[in-house]
Automatic annotation (TrEMBL):
Keyword Transmembrane helix: yes
Name of the protein in question: Glycerophosphoryl diester phosphodiesterase membrane domain-containing protein
UniProt superkingdom: Archaea
Matching Pfam families: DUF7544
Ranges for region Disordered: 48-68
């Protein structure tokens, strides 16, 4: 049996090369913007563990004297307002990035489909589909976090009551459940992004209708998609290592000029404090921007390759869902 995921490895390389080379600065810059948002923004919900103080009935000879419980200081109304505003701002930024990233998924696939990158045009045409993907991701995230909280609750409750040994034991039992939840959530999200989004572009319907269209393909050729998931995992590890090495090299290169200017700024602090402080701030800012630019530059071919790889597999399993039929023929002929 031919494994489409194996055949698509080299095909995706050729398709990526055809899109990105010869080098076009405008195309690369637009793809860097798209990749920045497609990369996604993750967040975690912090959990707070507390302990309860035990009280005695009285002091006994030879026992330690009972210390008074520390006074609990509740935040004032103004502090609560500030905390609420900060949390609201963080939530707004996270939700905004999630929405923009959802629309950019369609901009990205449309760019690969047409082999022409146009953010404004594709955004105007596909933002409604992006809203549907945004809603799906939001629901998936809420459901995942709720299940995670339910799995951790049996461990958190003993910890809050002060029984640390029970809490650790229950937490160890919850680890396989958490790993399973992460795997299922990641698999559903990955299949939606890599395959259901292209189906939405082909069919033009809702996300649920796209899932209904894709589901028979997925279950009917599950071996092909199992091979894709396994190989894509290995490819992501390999490209992650390559990307990390390239970014570290970029950091070293950028550290030389900006490190020199930063040292000059430190030397000027004792002579001209404002000038030295400004020079240090500018050096740090430019260094961070340079590192971010290198990371995005490296991510463009990697993200393009991975998305082309999924599109080749999708088209091989169902010709009616092939978004890149012309590129497929050009590569394979």
């Amino acid at each position: 049996m031919t494994l489409y995921a194996v055949d698509a490895i080299d095909d995706a390389v050729e398709a990526t090369r055809s899109l990105l080379w010869p080098f076009d600065a405008g195309r690369w810059l637009r793809l860097m913007v798209v990749v920045f948002f497609v990369g996604g923004a993750g967040g975690s919900a912090p959990s707070q563990l507390g302990g309860s103080a035990s009280t005695g009935t009285g002091s006994q000879p030879g026992s330690f004297p009972q210390l008074p419980a520390p006074e609990t200081v509740l935040p004032s109304g103004g502090e609560l307002l500030v905390i609420g505003v900060v949390l609201g701002a963080v939530a707004a930024v996270v939700i905004g990035l999630l929405f923009v990233g959802s629309v950019m998924e369609f901009v990205f696939v449309e760019s690969l489909r047409r082999e022409a990158v146009s953010i404004r045009r594709y955004w105007r045409d596909r933002w409604r589909a992006g809203v549907r993907l945004f809603g799906f991701r939001l629901v998936l995230g809420v459901v995942t976090l709720t299940l995670v909280a339910a799995a951790l609750a049996p461990a958190l409750l003993p910890a809050l009551s002060g029984d640390a040994s029970v809490a650790v034991g229950v937490l160890l039992l919850a680890v396989p459940v958490l790993v399973g939840l992460a795997a299922v959530s990641g698999l559903v999200g990955g299949l939606t992004t890599n395959f259901v989004v292209p189906v939405m572009l082909v069919e033009g319907g809702s996300l649920l209708s796209a899932w209904r269209r894709f589901w028979p393909v997925l279950t009917g050729q599950w071996k092909q998609y199992a091979a894709y998931v396994a190989l894509a995992f290995v490819i992501r590890i390999a490209t992650g290592v390559v990307s990390g090495v390239a970014v570290v090299f970029g950091v070293i290169v950028a550290a030389v000029p900006f490190g020199i200017t930063g040292i000059v700024g430190v030397a000027l602090l004792s002579v001209a404090t404002p000038v030295g402080a400004a020079l240090i701030a500018v050096s740090v800012l430019l260094f961070v921007l340079a590192v971010a630019a290198v990371a995005l530059l490296v991510s463009v071919p990697i993200r393009t390759y991975l998305r082309y790889y999924a599109l080749f597999v999708l088209g091989d399993t169902d010709a009616g869902l092939d978004l890149i039929a012309e590129r497929r023929r050009a590569v394979r002929e």
